[in-house]
Design a protein that fits this description.
Number of helices: 11
Radius of gyration: 21 Å
Largest sheet: 4 strands, mixed
Mean pLDDT: 96
Order of helices and strands: HHHHHEEEEEEEEHHHHHH
Helix content: 40-55%
Shape: globular
Structural class: alpha+beta
Low-confidence stretches: none
Strand order of the largest sheet: 1-4-5-8
Length: 386
């Protein structure tokens, strides 16, 4: 990885334009269409697609570095693009392991299609292991999905929505069905995204009223509950690693802004720059020590996915753990950055104010703290006594 240059895929000039637009989209609560258009033009939507299919042929380790870099410019843009990259990442997990079925995702990404993530449902803490959305066979290998998905990032622009639902009517039911649908009149996108932070993701509610996935876009049918199927591992591994990357990028930007600020501010008491104040220096060091731990952890886990390492039952602890640590670290670093930068950071026009709001969204992504701790406890102590 030492020879990987992220600026080849995310040039400074492109990042600068994205950074300049970020406060506007946050203030106006709008989707960053120009960001998407420029990233698509730069080939960013297909970074995880193999070269032989027309993509950049990058690994998850490299994509994680790029997502950290993108998040330093616009966290909401990075988080929205994350959901597309999750599906292209799952497609890479499949193709790397010789599992067919997601070639259309790779080809679509190269063609400029945008894939969104339709898994989350209100009150469904089973997440990947269950669904309140019904999946009814159409009789020709397809499925009709009826239900409500929440936090559907990329809501205004996706061309295909990857989702899951529960088939309770087939002879071998129940089965969880993973598939992709297109936009039709059976898909209603709400206008309900008015949030504290991450406003530009436009992660609106999606209501499905018999939305049909044709047979070619039905990817897997698996038993509900914990399952070793590649679709579960693929989604969980890529989602957690790229999510950790976005919030680690937020922390890096907060740290950089804090350093910049204390070098520019001068103490009236001492006449020295705040960068010479021992207490401020301790706070900066505390931020740096927390931040420095995460990029190597993310890189190591992403490399394991790329290399098809056998971490056995530890996989889910490692993946949920790195996401949990990234969120915890990022919130701590942004908190410290706000204190370091002083009262000016409390104003909405200050970039740290936006980062402070954006970083709070991390608590609402799976795996939540309860799930991460329960997974770790089971790994080290065994399951609870029945």
């Amino acid at each position: 990885m030492s020879d990987f240059d992220p600026a080849l895929f995310l040039p400074d000039e492109l990042l600068g334009r994205i950074r300049d637009r970020a406060p506007v989209h946050d203030r106006e609560n709008t989707f960053p269409q120009q960001d998407l258009d420029e990233l698509r033009e730069a080939g960013y939507l297909s970074i995880l697609v193999p070269k032989e299919r027309g993509g950049a042929g990058l690994g998850l380790e490299q994509a994680a570095i790029l997502q950290q870099r993108l998040a330093t410019a616009a966290p909401a843009t990075a988080l929205a693009i994350n959901m597309h990259l999750v599906w292209t990442g799952v497609a890479k997990v499949f193709s790397d392991r010789g599992v067919p079925g997601l070639e259309f995702v790779q080809d679509g990404a190269v063609a400029g299609e945008v894939f969104a993530f339709g898994i989350s449902e209100g009150g469904n803490d089973l997440v990947l292991f269950g669904s309140d959305t019904s999946a009814v066979p159409t009789g020709n290998g397809g499925y009709a999905f009826t239900g409500t998905k929440i936090f559907t990032s990329l809501a205004p622009v996706w061309t295909k929505l990857g989702l899951h639902g529960l088939d309770t009517t087939s002879a071998d039911a129940p089965k969880l069905v993973f598939a992709f649908i297109e936009r039709t009149d059976a898909v209603v996108t709400g206008v309900d995204w008015d949030t504290l932070g991450m406003r530009a993701t436009q992660s609106r509610t999606t209501r499905l009223n018999g939305a049909v996935a044709d047979a070619a876009h039905v990817v897997r049918r698996i038993d509900p509950g914990p399952n070793p199927d590649p679709i579960v591992f693929g989604i969980f591994s890529v989602f957690e690693i790229l999510l950790a990357s976005v919030y680690t990028g937020i922390a890096r930007r907060a740290l950089d802004l804090a350093v910049q600020t204390v070098r520019q501010r001068t103490s009236k008491k001492t006449g020295l720059a705040y960068s010479q104040d021992p207490d401020i220096r301790w706070r900066i060091a505390d931020m740096a020590l927390a931040y420095d731990a995460l990029p190597p952890q993310i890189a190591a886990l992403a490399r394991d996915v790329d290399d098809q390492a056998d971490n056995g039952p530890r996989w889910f602890t490692l993946l949920s753990g790195v996401k949990h640590r990234a969120i915890t670290m990022a919130k701590h670093v942004v908190d410290q950055a706000m204190l370091t930068a002083g009262g000016g950071s409390y104003f909405s026009a200050n970039e740290l104010s936006r980062l402070y709001r954006d970083v709070l969204a991390g608590a609402f992504h799976p795996s939540d703290p309860e799930s991460a701790h329960a997974t770790a406890a089971s790994a080290w102590l065994g399951p609870l006594d029945s």
